[in-house]
Amino acid sequence: MSAVPKSRDKPKTRFATPSGIEVPEVVSADMIAERDPGPPAQYPFTRGIFADGYRGRPWTIRQYSGFGSAEESNRRYRFLLEQGQTGLSVALDLPTQCGYDPDHPMARPEVGKVGVSLFSLAEMETLFAGIDLGAISTSFTINGTAAILYAMYLAAADRKGVPRDQLTGTIQNDILKEYVARGTWIFPVRPSLRLIADTILYSNEVSPRFNAISIAGAHVRDAGCTAVEEMAYTLANGLAYVDELIRRGGDVARFARRLSFFFYVHMDLFEEACKFRAGRRLWARLLRGRYGVSDDKALHFRFGVVCGGSSLVAAQPYNNVVRVAIENVAAVLGGAQSIFTCAYDEAFQIPTEFSAELALRTQQIVQHEAGVAATVDPLGGSYYVEWLTERMEQAMVEVMREIDDYGGVVKAIEDGWLQRRIAARAREKKDATDRGERVVVGQNRYRRAEQAESYGEVFRLDPAIAGRVLEKHANLKRSRDNAKVARTLQALEAAARGDKDNLMPLLVDCCHAYATVGEMVERLKRCWGEFQEPVRL
Amino acid sequence: MSAAADAPLAGKRILVAKPGLDGHDAGAKVVALALRDAGAEVIYTGLRKSPDFIVRTAVDEDVAAVGLSILSGSHSELAREVIEGLRAAGAGDIPVFVGGTIPPEDREPLLAAGVKGVYTNDTPLAQMIEDLARKLH
Prior knowledge:
The complex is a heterodimer. By secondary structure, chain A is α/β, with parallel strands linked by helices. Chain A has one domain (12-435): Alpha-Beta Barrel (TIM Barrel), CATH 3.20.20. In chain A, 48% of the residues lie in helices and 7% in strands. Chain A is built from 20 helices and 10 strands. Chain B has one domain: Cobalamin-binding domain (Rossmann fold), CATH 3.40.50.280. Chain B has helices at 26-37, 51-60, 75-88, 104-112, 125-135; strands at residues 13-17, 41-44, 65-70, 96-100, 117-119. In chain B, strand 3, helix 3 and strand 4 (96-100) form a beta-alpha-beta unit. Chain B is globular and about 35 Å long. The interface between A and B is large, with 46 and 37 residues.
């Protein structure tokens, strides 16, 4: 490695955050409109939603995991719980996410790959064997089939004798961003919105401590958009759900208490911390301004985060441990309620037990050793932080206005407008990386000719797992009461053809009868068809 | 939009496809846009296409190359199915390229299975285009 600085290391003359906000050399008090952000737990909640910050309740350490069949994942969950993890986060395989049974031709190469296969209640029961659903909070990254997985979770609790009102946890259930970035959509936009309203309204009644939606910016961020756009698109989607729920007769002061959010944390520490401070107060302002919400709890912007994702780099992979630690600190300074730290190899494979433990220890070090959670919003009142919070909030409002001008998020998604915007942004980011303007240590700067590109131990999924899943699926179809399955599916289809009934109780009946995810989705497709993706670039 | 005749991929029709259920399309779209800027005529399939569909489209559209974008870990199976499908359709001369989250250990086996090039997130676009232009000549 050369010790001589290369010419491209010349001093920077322009300083901007990754969102493109020009950063002044020094920020002074007179550059900030709202110099005093006010106390925490008071509108507009710039400094957080709790008066005692993390003292009363530390953030939930919630590592995302799941792979193979329910048996393997159950073993990994028990390991993580024994190691001090405080919430479960279930990764589902793509067939379960896209509504295919494991024996479907599209499903077979993907069974158990990026998450666990949960094709019926029987698998859910195995997944949570020996785990008290009344004592643990469980998050499911599930969208297209969220209503079905939530129904399955309720049915699993029923079977274990755990009262539904004791259940805590989250289903992601944010379909709008799936159309834009993550791609596990199934039905067209409008029936999907109906299904989401069904889950939220039903959950408010039967499992009031459960978050039936986690409106997510994480995936559009990972697809290339900036921190400002991530928050703006997410809040715009949030407002679309609020409008739908109100149209369905929901009481905003009630359901807004259970809306939660989910974001990525990437590498610019101050921009990330300020993104959350700005988003938190903007959401409160929007709910109060547009809908007259006054109840504090309904105005609370509660969010989980993931540190890592596309900010992780394959080159010199151990550097990712450092990146994740910095992002973890940013999340805490921004006031996250739950945090998932990616393992350093997460972007390239299912983490090994070693890398998964290291990611968990990172959070525990930040929580117990770094002192960042001792006082509420330790950055509050900093000239730069208050200035940047303000600038980011303004920029978010501007992006939301562009969406409104276009005709709202639903139209922007159906037309592919938002998708094209994000693709263009991803291209800009890639070009800036290729040119070296966006520095990625180990990849486009400080790269060694002979550097190892391997990340040590490689996780290999047992190739026999898919076969075992298929066998369990075939056995289930033989052993269950198929007449009961047919009856419950018929009732589901009849209700889906109309627009009066909430479909949740019918889905719970289907799950109790051991109908499969693929069977339920097939019935709903008959009624609603499938989303037609706009593919124009 | 007409690209200059001396653009590196001028006159090449390239299919960019998302096989399987993986929904991460940022990489596929970035590549498609870059290929277009390099003069290629790009056909993008959109998400969730079966290997059969991709083979049929490649043959019907008489493309010069197929690019598969896979981030779900299923690259080995899916690439093999597309290559075999093209051969079975008498179009084994259409080269197949793979992009996405490909562990370094899987690169050689993919090439041995008939894939003509493997590109990942950290491959500069210019380098990918140069490599393609060389291999498609």
